Amino acid sequence: MKKAYENVWEFFSNEDFWAKIGIGSVKIIAIILVAMVISKVLKIAVHNIFKMRQKAPIRFSERREATLLKLLDNTITYVIYFIAFVMILDTFDVKVRTLLAGAGIVGLAVGFGAQSLVKDVITGFFIIFEDQFSVGDYVRIGNFEGYVEAIGLRVTKIKSWTGEVHILPNGTITQVTNFSLHNSVAVVDVSVSHDGDLERAEEVIRHLLSELPEKYEDMVAAPELLGIQNLTSSEVVLRVTCETKPMRHFFVARALRKEIKLRLDENGIEIPFPKLVLYNREGEEGLPQPRAKADA
């Protein structure tokens, strides 16, 4: 027992041991700090390069720039910290070359069983290379729909309008609907009563539509009244369309409905609504007589 205690005491009282730990700790801290600084500097440099490209006559779209910036930031982080990890192992006298060679053999063996991972990486590369969609785009992939939060070589993150973030392996992405590549179209149907003056209603709506582009910057062009879209037993349906900036058609459609309703009310043009007519059987000669009219 005494001998074991002496061995432990000798081990922890060894100056060379503590000197080695101290020097190793300083080296590790220095390596981590240098890696953080280099990573930060490289990211700033990449961002500045993209800012300079904005002034060039030929440049990427903002969507693609955002995607490439995020991908390059991740790549820089992975590469720098991997090198730092290897240097830290070297401070502990770990034979890094032997370890890397062994890792290469193990990686080759694992690669045969990780075909889905390889498929994810290859698909992710072509998504970015072909600019199928970018960060900030509104897309539909399978059953998921929302804004693209991030695109990596392995996974893509989509945030739905209710806040959920869906993480999809790139290898599972076989079909994409991108709503952000081109301008959208807002479609609004306006109902007018059969008893109303249809010509006057169309004139009022057209006059209103010509004023709206100055009020709403999301409208690419003035809204257009296409004409009668449908005829029913109680109403005449007029259709209005408007070209908008990408993914702003929902907002513009709501604004159009509000503006048209207010303008029709100002001009005394009634929008049809269900009515109920009640008759009294106790009329003259047993004929039913009107009694009251009420809204449904």
UniProtKB/TrEMBL annotation:
InterPro entries xref list: LSM_dom_sf, MS_channel_1st, MS_channel_C, MscS_beta-dom_sf, MscS_channel_2nd, MscS_channel_C_sf, MscS_channel_TM-2, YbiO_bact
SUPFAM superfamilies cross-referenced by the UniProt entry: Mechanosensitive channel protein MscS (YggB), C-terminal domain, Mechanosensitive channel protein MscS (YggB), transmembrane region, Sm-like ribonucleoproteins
Topology term for the membrane: Multi-pass membrane protein
Keyword Protein biosynthesis in record: no
Keywords from the named record: Cell membrane, Membrane, Transmembrane, Transmembrane helix
One Pfam family it belongs to: MS_channel_3rd
Cellular component per GO, a single term: plasma membrane
Annotated compartments: Cell membrane
Domain Mechanosensitive ion channel MscS, residue spans: 117-180
Functional note: May play a role in resistance to osmotic downshock.
Family: Belongs to the MscS (TC 1.A.23) family.
Protein name: Mechanosensitive ion channel family protein
